[in-house]
Amino acid sequence: MKNIDGKSKLYALFASPCEHSISPLIQNSAFEKMNINAVYMAFDVGTDKIADAVLSMRTLGIAGANISMPNKNAVIEYLDEVSDDARFCNAVNTVVNRDGKLYGYNTDIFGSEKAIEDLGINITNSKVCLLGLGGAGQAVLYTLAKNNVNKVCVFVRQNSIEFRKSYVDKVRSSFSIDVDIYAIEEQMLLSKHINEADLLINTTKLGMAQDIDKSPLDDEIKLPEHICVLDLIYNPGETRLLAKAKADGCIRYSNGLNMLVYQGVKSFEHFTGKKIDIYDIFRVLENAFKF
Questions:
Q1: Same fold, 9-105+258-289 and 109-254
Q2: Which residues, in sequence order, are CB contacts of 273 under 8 Å at separation 6+?
Q3: What ranges do the domains of the chain cover?
Q4: Catalytic pick from 2, 7, 9, 72?
Q5: Alpha-carbon distance 206 to 187, whole Å?
Q6: CATH 3.40.50.10860 fits 9-105+258-289, yes or no
Q7: Beta bridge partner(s), residue 183
Q8: How far apart are CA 153 and CA 128, in angstroms?
């Protein structure tokens, strides 16, 4: 990384937890590659502090920020303008400070679309099981809807069904897809829908950080070999869900690293107005980690 001086721009990640994140590596590598005088740092910020974090962008002139779990919904009310797709999803993961005015975007939409493409599946007219409907899950459901999937079965915690149902209803009324919501605790029903699905996507935190030893699926559930599995968690590289996919003979499965890189590159474009070769970022990660 180049030396930091008085002209260096500061970019940030606001998330909790944030210690596991490789977003600083992605963005700082991109700044260095493009010879941009800037630095990107991660800050542990939960929903109780997101208002203060956004205020710090205005006060300190922080040029941009990525917003991750658990702040993608909560951040919106503190921004000046939000893109149409981010507004629809009610989730922002990228904020750009332009002359003191804060603009919110959602690059998870682009990232999830490209990550699904990398699995080699044509999701048009397919059936998908979606686990979780937080900020990332809402972006993924929007991606599925605008790509004309046939049916989506969303599974969330029983105590959040009523809260999440309004977004499901919004998607159902805005797109020509069949989408229903169920309690993830109903594992037998989940198993039934998984066996009928073409793609299973996990957007929950089960499998990372303090939940690293957990899985959204009971051990008794067997994944059919035909199903593609995408777990948005990228650290660890193999979650319990992906280990199950491998053990059960699934041919195509992936962690969330590709999605992270795709959304990160799109965020970089919002931050700087410049495009970077995505394969440069993949090479940096390959040299730094063994996923």
A1: yes
A2: none
A3: 9-105+258-289, 109-254
A4: 72
A5: 15
A6: yes
A7: 156
A8: 6
- CB 38, CB 64: distance < 8 Å: no
CA dihedral 50, 53, 57, 59 (to 10 degrees): 130
Distance CA 152, CA 179 (A): 5
Cα dist from 250 to 41, 117, 219, whole Å: 37, 17, 16
Phi-psi group of 35: left, alpha or beta (phi > 0 → left; psi -120 to 50 → alpha; rest → beta): left
Active-site residue flag, 146:
no
In Å, how far from its chain's centre is CA 253?
17
- The fold adopted by the segment(s) 109-254 is Rossmann fold (3.40.50)
pLDDT tens, residue by residue, 120-147: 999 999 999 999 999 999 999 999 999 9
Determine contact, residues 148/180, Cβ cutoff 8 Å: no
Model confidence pLDDT, tens digit, residues 24-61: 999 999 999 999 999 999 999 999 999 999 999 999 99
Alpha-carbon distance 142 to 277, whole Å?
A: 26
